[in-house]
Amino acid sequence: MRKVLLILALVVQGSIQAKLLAQSSLPANLPPAKFHLYLLAGQSNMAGRGTVETVDKTPHPRVWVLNKDGQWIPATDPLHFDKPDVVGVGPGLVFGKQLAEADTSVFIGLIPAAAGGSAISSWQPGGYHDQTKSHPYDDAIIRAKLAQKTGTLRGIIWHQGESDSKPELASVYEKNLEQLIQRFRTEFHNPQLPVVVGTLGDFYVSRTPGGSTINAILQNLPNHIQNLT
To answer: For the whole prediction, is pTM greater than 0.85?
Structure first.
């Protein structure tokens, strides 16, 4: 009897290990056209600072994330790694899950690239961000190009602006963001690449006069830039 129980235990254990192994990598025959990639760029409101709860640690079978080491793993919060001591829940995972549910024939690949506290001035070639000891723009390009070896870039999600809400910075923010979007599209050889921008939270705007200026700029962008919402 003990021998039978031992065999059953080994079979069950092997089954569990096989299942975990199968979930640890993308399907080998997944066509790049069916693996939709989205670059998550900006600062802390994209990286995420919310409290991580059980639901945030529950992966979706078709939503994956490119981790810090450039490997595809099932996506759970926190997605980012810009400031490990404070990083938490952001908008990326929910966004990915909603896309996956909208089209059950595709996989979604999220590319975390936000740097908390970064001004738009660091989002240019060679730009450096001291808080995260990173080069936000250069790092985002490297990670996105790595991701494109297995998938197809379908859009960029941009959420940033607090660090540029001072009057002297806000006055040139629109021009800088337009240049950044054009630079991204040129780099990825897609002049119509969709870009979604998020406005600053009301809690921030209510206590920061320049915040309303940034939000007005973000809300006006779709009026003169194609494929931007």
So the answer is: yes
